[in-house]
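Narrative of accomplishments. A recurring question from our advisory board has been how the design workflow behaves on a single, concrete structure rather than in aggregate. To address it, we present the structure tokens for one chain from the evaluation set, followed by the sequence designed for it. No filtering or post-editing was applied between the two.
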């Protein structure tokens, strides 16, 4: 099992105390930032202003997940935040290779996300152009949903397809202590968790628990 990074989702924080909430997850590896436009997904989250405030408040590298219908219109704006990863949805991009190239022009790692119904095999032609595959294990749009168990098999297939390429495999939606180990064993290398971490009595202890289950 490889080293697995943990990416708490900003969507699940109590925004009335953003600083304390972000401080409580300082031991994580990345900060997952969900941008929803009310069109690609049936919900609106927050935009670049809040993402920028989070970036200033946390020292974690950003892992930005764009759930928007027109990702090309927002790549430059979010690239200004210098995230580690900028991920767009396969289903939202008409000219995926062009969109991925424009992310790369900003010297940012390139991610592609797949909705639960989209086969991982559809990424095969562009594997040489991506740094991360984000497998949605819920239908995107809301935190706190139930994990779709078939996602574990999807992770396994993605890991097999990726082979020796240095491509991270991230899982997002309903991730918790209940499924983290199975996901890592299947080949996940980044786990996003929103409600599981921020609804825990101690987010820091929850992250420590995840690390323990991933290393034992
Ligand atoms: C869902 C988002 C997720 C969400 C995960 O559309 O992409 O990142 O914040 O939240 P939990 O971990 O609560 O399912
Ligand atoms: Zn997300």
């Amino acid at each position: 099992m490889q080293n697995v990074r943990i990416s708490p989702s900003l969507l699940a924080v109590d925004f009335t105390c953003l600083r304390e909430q972000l401080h409580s997850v300082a031991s994580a590896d990345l900060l997952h930032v969900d941008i929803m436009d009310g069109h690609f997904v049936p919900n609106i989250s927050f935009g670049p202003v809040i993402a920028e405030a989070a970036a200033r408040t946390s020292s974690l590298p950003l892992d930005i997940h764009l759930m928007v219908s027109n990702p090309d219109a927002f790549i430059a704006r979010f690239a200004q935040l210098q995230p580690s990863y900028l991920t767009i949805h396969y289903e939202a991009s008409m000219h995926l290779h062009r969109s991925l190239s424009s992310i790369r022009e900003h010297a940012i790692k390139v991610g592609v996300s797949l909705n639960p119904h989209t086969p991982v095999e559809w990424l095969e032609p562009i594997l040489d152009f991506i740094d991360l595959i984000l497998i949605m294990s819920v239908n995107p749009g809301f935190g706190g949903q139930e994990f779709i168990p078939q996602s574990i098999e999807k992770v396994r297939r993605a890991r097999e397809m990726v082979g020796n390429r240095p491509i991270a495999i991230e899982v997002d939606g309903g991730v918790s202590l209940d499924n983290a180990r199975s996901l890592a064993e299947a080949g996940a290398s980044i786990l996003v968790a929103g409600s599981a971490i921020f609804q825990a009595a101690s987010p820091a202890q929850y992250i420590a628990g995840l690390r323990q289950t991933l290393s034992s």
